[in-house]
Amino acid sequence: MIRNFRRAQEPLDHAELARLLPAPGDPDLRPDRRLALEEHLMQQIQHAPAPAPEAPRPARPRRRTLLVALPVAAAAVAGVLALQLLGSASPDGTAAPLARVPAPVVRIEAGSPEKLDATIRQISTAAARQREPKVGPGQFLYVKSQVSYLVTEVDFDKNTETAFVQELHPREVWKSRDGSRGYLIEPGNSPAGGESLDNDVPPHVNAPSYDFLRTLPTDPDALLAKIYADGEGKGRNRYQQAFTTIGDLVGEQAPPAGLASALYQAAAKIPGVVVVEHAEDAAGRDGLAVARTDETAGERTELIFDRRSFTYLGQRTVQVEEVKGLKPGTVTGRTAVIERGVADVLGNRPGTGGA
Question: What is each CA distance from 344 to 133, 140, 203, in whole angstroms?
Answer without folding.
Answer: 13, 6, 21
